[in-house]
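CSON007057 protein: structure tokens wanted.
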Amino acid sequence: MNGLLCKVVNRRTILSFCRSEGNFGILSLNTNEKYNERIVTSHKLDTRNQGAFIMHGNNKRQRNSFIDFYTPPPPPDVLSVKCGDLWQGYLGMYVRLRGRIVKARLGRFLEIRDSRGIAQLVADDDNPRMLRMFQSIPIDSYITVYGIVRSRLTPNKSIPTGYVELHVEDIRDVDYPMDENGSGPNQRRRLNTSAPAAPVSRTVTSIEFKKINGSKGLLDRLNNRLTTCGELRSIDVGKHVTLVGWIDRKKHGKFLHLRDGYGQTQIVIDNENPVIKQTVAAINADSFVLVKGHVVSRPSSNKNTAFETGDIEVLVEEFQMLDPELPYDGPILPQNQVQSETEPMDIANNTVETSQQQKSAPKTPKVNTFTNRTHTCGELGDKDIGKEVVLCGWLEFERMRKFFTLRDGYGCTQIMLPDDLGEKLRIETIPFESILQVKGTVMGRPPGMRNETMATGGIEVILSDLQILNKAKSKLPIEIREHNRAKEPLRLEYRYIDLRFSDMQKNLRTRSKVLMKMREYLINHAGFVEVETPTLFRRSPGGAQEFVVPSRKPGHFYSLVQSPQQLKQMLMVGAIDRYFQIARCYRDEATRPDRQPEFTQLDLELSFSDRDKIMELIEKVLVNCWPDFCGALNTPFPRLTYDQAMADYGTDKPDIRFAMKLIDITQAIELNPELKEGHKNFGSSAVLIKFPHSSLPNQLKENLNNIAKQYPKTKFVTSKIVPDVSQWIEGGLTRLVGQDVTKALSSELHLEDNDLLLFAYGDKEQSQLLMGRVRVAMRQSMEVRGIYTPDTSFSLCWVLDFPLLSEGEKEGTFESVHHPFTAPHPDDMHLLHAQKDLPKIRSLAYDLVLNGQEIGGGSIRIHDPNLQKLIIQDLLKLDITEFNHMLDALRSGCPPHGGIALGIDRLLAIMCNVESIRDVIAFPKGFDGKDHLSKAPMPITEAEKELYNIEIKVPEKVTEKVTETGNSSSKSAEITNTSLNESGTTETIKAMS
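Answer:
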């Protein structure tokens, strides 16, 4: 009969789960207070019962060791996230964080840090167990927590994660501060919660590697063990285990401490066994022993909170001293049995890979081929322990003259210097950011030294050789440190250093991956052909300002293309019916956070298609290339007409993530005829803010007034409904717009006390544009004040039916809203041929908008040469000879076609959650259009001027300054002119015949 006790009924009765000859049952064991009388009764057993006790010993009073067979229900699907990557995109998700506690507040808030940044943890007030745990964990402990991401009531804008916090539901693992040997005064028991806190690896650690002193047999035995001394918990009670380690001689007696590189476990030996007793007496500090036995639970009074396995002990059945000279002849574990506790992260996507992949191994295949390294600094893990490796990278940190970290574009690895090499190499004398080549052996770190915030935090490389490939300057202009980052002009000037930051690495690798997936879908799934078109082309009238490129032919210039528009249309004529390219484009315009003088776009065109099919194609391209860390896209994207977007959002680039739509109050305002005088196209739009969010801070009010000044054809009004609606109707606003208007506004808008009404009236388009900006400013202010949580989701929409033409600066002239090759809407062709109500003619143009920013624009093109000539010559009044090459192409048999261009830089900036497209471009221009790295644009030499037949004419204001200062200032004039050139001031260029 085999038996396990399963339930204590009372102080005298214990039920035991038994199996005898295949039959299951219950034994009721009754005892007296002194445990010296036992009466056994048999019962039938419901096999659904779980839980057991084991009793050991004789009729004397014994300790009963509890076996907890209860397994907690599995948690919801969990996503492992770095602390610094926690943002609003994870709101509502169940995530896992691992980091070091750096701050505790009020007994319910903790801040933890990893290599990516800081995240705030919260223990809910209705969870007293979690509150107690928060208050008991000391600073500098490493913890693993699970919980739900929620918005902060009061955002902390000083850190990237300041808009969210993690409401902790479970703490799975707490590693308290400990010394190099895994013990010491700061070591405490790891919290024993619903899940076991087992180490992620059982391979040899650096401490064990030193201890075995080169023994191959001991090394193989440690690498092939199934259990370590530091991983046993109450959940393991009842298991038969085999442990390998060394004994602390100070603990000799019945209870000994068996230690290895992962921790220690108390073992209980039988002093009456002469063989075991003799073996124990023979051991010394350098002896390795093998222990076999059963795990049992300690009585409550004997639990030891000084170390992590203090809830259990091992009853020794076999005790053997190991000979380091003998080879290991036991079973060999396959390498694939070693798995990471946490799933690895993809560098570009910041997403979880499958558990079969090595932690943080780059997805780029074979990145170590054709190089002098064996591995990157970001891919080594537990499976590599024992390997001889060669790493190359930048010296990042050094500490204690014994450790340093080596960094490359894939991650970083800790290197440990043996004592004999430490004095010889003097690593502290090597400047940071020097290029090193490191050779060494991969070893596991002890549990207390494992850094879960690093992808390679479970290992370190024991150095055997180091070469300095290139020593850096002792003081670089930029320090590669996440805190106290340099200002942007300095970052741009030393961009080659700035690119080493992890966020720049991630952004550029994300960019590469997105472009690759775009190409992959268009070529392999949609049959497109990638064609490179010229950058040097001719001037295109009617578009943006272009860069002029001189030629050796006097008086003749190229222009850098502002887009491949005409060229791709001619490809359609040439039967390249599905074209695309990643095109570089140029526009001589002022730089902004979302604009550069040279930029990149996904440019495509296809024949025999229509607007809906092109829009569907782009949706599929974006779904295919969309990074996993940005979440999934829902298709089809919403579609708005231009008129609808202007009426509801006051812009043709609407941010539809939040409501607060504009309200058309034109009819109410028109009740006062005086208000619409002088406006041919009158309109009025309003934004209503309901109480209690209707406060209007002075700074916000000033900002709104400054916005209103930019729209001179409108009148902007802010009015709060105080003290109540009835008195407001007769109040100060009545003197401005009249009582009929205020009554109508109160009725139509259902105004209530303390509401805030903001509206503009006058020119319809300007009123809509003004209130569109007011809408956005109000929302941003509410987010800053904590009324709303910033929405970091991704919301795309299409805007259709744009006007074909807009009124020009001169009265009676018109300009293309998009470009002259955009096809008119077929329903408005009668207006075009009659040449009446031209601003009402719609086009077949469409824009793609993401979070309030235009990221793409396209249209169906004109393929009829007569219609194209009508628009260029008769409506736009442009010189038709400038387009003869285009018209000839259309007359040569041009199919119906259309296309679109996506702004890659803007798209990537939104994906990567950066404020400027400069952060997703390797070498961007500065805010003033200047290249801070090369100092371009620069003056050219006299020889170059002569070669290209150009003459520089000094601007008049500089000439006047020289004249006033007299002849002695000719040198000053030259310097002033050079300064103007370098700062990008427009020069007058004159061709010499």
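Confidence is low (pLDDT under 50) at residues 1-74, 179-199, 336-362, 958-993. The longest strand covers residues 94-105.

Cheers.
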